[in-house]
Amino acid sequence: MPQDRKNQWGSQVSKPCLPLHSITAAPGESPPGRRVMRMAAVLRVTAIASKSGVYALIKNADFPRPIRIGKRRVGWLADEVEAWLMERIKERDQDNMPAFSSGRDGACP
Predict the structure, then answer these.
(1) Roughly how many angstroms between the first and final C-alpha of the chain, as a whole number?
(2) Is pLDDT above 70 for 2?
């Protein structure tokens, strides 16, 4: 039996966070690439902090644009979100990426 989970605001979470492969493909199935993710799934999978954060990235052309799936609904293609995540991993793994400082070494202005 799954344990009761709470989100960062203390509200009950009914569904556990799912790994990306479980959103993009059924068990034993290759990813179809044309599944649509709603905003909640995008936030959960990418760990972007907020809706406004997603839209700021889109405005700067740093995140895939949504598609219209209804009169007042949009969604993101799962394969595009996964490609965006893979690009972040590739950037991280490049040797020339600067290391982040914790600010504890006294180098902060």
Answers:
(1) 50
(2) no
